[in-house]
Amino acid sequence: MTLDRIGFAYNPTKEAALDLRERAEGWCEVRGIAHWAAPAGETKAVVRELPDTGALVVLGGDGTFLRAARAVSEVDVPLLGVNLGKIGFLSKVETGGMEAVLGQLAAGDFELEARMALHAEIHPAGRPEAGETFFALNDIAVARGSLARVCRIEVEIGPSHLATFTADGLVVSSPTGSTGYSFSAGGPIVDPTSRNLIVTPIAGYLSAIRSVVVSPRHTVRIRILDAYDVLMSVDGREDRRLSVGDVVCVSEMSRPVRFIEPRGAIPFWELLRQKSELLPS
């Protein structure tokens, strides 16, 4: 499979990303490959360009990648990240290897890897039929806001009551997001190609349940029982204020997000070891 058109989603606030975009566009120009570029956060502009695009290459860190993923949740185009951040668990390529990987893309020399994503719904108290829906690649977090007051939340998994937590909040993560907020809250790191929801309380008070791994057949329901200030956060980039009685439902998205796996890419568990060595001890 060869690609006739490549898109580049970039972080416009980083000079290094702008330079990398120029390098990428120049590479395409020399080889006569159709291409386009747009800031990753301008979702409507990215979505508008995605039809007839063979691959979307993201130039930035994990935050830029998550913004670009929002667009491909609407138009199914495979993603490849070129890392400009510090950690970059979502990226398969470092900046020095970009041109070589673009050559692989142009030649169709790559594989695709399906990653489970999350679908979330907010059902307001007293109006369960109403509410918004959201897409997340990494996680949905329900957590206290700016005030240092704990929340009391009830969690159901499928038809079963799991627990009522008094905590700073709760994270429901995809396998891809298990290295992020969920891990910081004490959750496990899960193989990113698996299909599970990871449910982890944040600083739970006197709770015997630390984290559970749930089948994608189930929906996780989070009901706010008591809270002074509580928000739902989507991939750490989009917040919605919640009220007592509101219910957040998190389930598997019906279609996975496809990651491009270039030939010679570092396997996930090796990447995890390398990135972990970069973190301060």
Q: Can you walk me through this structure?
A:
- This protein is α+β, with helices and mostly antiparallel strands and 281 residues long.
- The protein folds into two domains: 5-116 and 256-278, Rossmann fold; 118-252, Sandwich (Tumour Suppressor Smad4).
- It is 21% helix and 37% strand.
- It is built from six helices and 19 strands.
- A six-stranded antiparallel sheet has the order 8-7-18-15-10-11. It has a six-stranded antiparallel sheet with strand order 14-13-12-9-16-17, with no helix packed on it. Strands 2-1-3-4-5 form a five-stranded parallel sheet, with helices on both faces.
- Strand 16 (230-234) and strand 17 form a beta hairpin.
- Helix 2 packs across helix 3.
- The protein is elongated and about 60 Å long.
- The protein starts with a strand and ends with a helix.
- The model has no long low-confidence stretch (mean pLDDT 91).
